[in-house]
Design goal:
Blueprint: H1 15-27, E1 34-35, H2 42-52, E2 63-69, E3 78-82, H3 92-109, E4 116-119, H4 130-145, E5 151-155, H5 157-161, H6 163-169, E6 181-183, H7 187-200, E7 204-211, E8 217-218, H8 226-242
Parallel strand pairs: 1-8, 3-6, 4-5, 4-6
Antiparallel strand pairs: 2-3, 2-7
Length: 245
């Protein structure tokens, strides 16, 4: 995407050369955003971004999100799932940073106010363990860095999404039952979760949308359809227009 409009792609013999050239043009301000991945792995796209573009100010880790469209949820039909694609075992800081990046991107892409749930197998102390502690600590860090955004945790996924369950399990929560940004505790749960929702609930999964670069650089599955490419290109344009990374 060139500044001010679309341009015809310039053929470059090497796929890696094309990716690196596009990232260099993005870094130079000649483009508003880049969509890659149809002929590259996610790792290749991220490496090109780290080498040629760099991270946004204050960001230490690239993460990703899927935008899950569920028509059955009515006005709350779009859910953000972060991070189902990049960081296998995120630290407390990485969980909080992924959540913050997802909120910035959601404002640009969906245009509503984020409500964040840090997911776990426990809700407000119903279970204990090191993994629960990590989620709680990530919530506290997020609240410190993004105090204006409603957030809660640890929450089981039904407490995060279903109003009646949220009221029963976390009656004092401002997020339970109405979350639209779901922060998964690790790559396993995030990846499994989005694919279950896509395959069994019939959701459209848009992404993975990369988070954390200085300018919008997004990935595609190498099995991406034409509509997938168009969807991610439109999201990239929204991110560029809204200043989200």
């Amino acid at each position: 995407m060139a500044r001010g409009g679309w341009v015809e792609p310039v053929p470059i013999r090497s796929p890696s050369g094309a990716l690196n050239a596009a990232v260099a043009a993005l870094a130079a301000g000649e483009l508003d955003g880049v969509v890659a991945g149809a002929t590259h792995s996610t790792a290749d796209v991220i490496r090109a971004g780290l080498r040629g573009l760099g991270l946004a100010t204050g960001v230490t880790t690239v993460s990703a999100a899927f935008y899950m469209i569920l028509e059955t949820r009515g006005s709350d039909s779009v859910l953000t799932f972060t991070d189902p694609a990049v960081v296998p075992e995120p630290t407390v800081e990485q969980l909080a940073e992924s959540a913050a990046a997802a909120c910035r991107a959601r404002r640009a892409i969906v245009g509503d106010d984020p409500r964040v749930a840090f997911l776990s197998y426990s809700t407000h102390g119903s279970a204990t363990g090191p993994r629960v502690d990590r989620v709680r600590q990530a919530l506290e860090r997020f609240r410190t860095t993004c105090p204006e955004i409603p957030a809660d945790g640890e929450l089981q996924v039904d407490a995060a999404l279903v109003p009646s369950v949220g009221a029963a399990k976390a009656p004092d929560s401002e997020v339970a039952g109405s979350a639209n940004v779901l922060v998964f505790p690790d790559l396993d749960s995030g990846n499994i979760g989005y694919k279950l929702v896509e395959r069994l609930a019939g959701a459209r999964a848009l992404g993975p949308i990369l988070q954390g670069f200085k300018s919008p650089l997004n990935d595609l599955s190498r099995g991406a359809s034409t509509s997938d490419i168009v969807d991610v290109a439109c999201i990239t344009a929204l991110m560029a227009d809204g200043g989200a990374q």
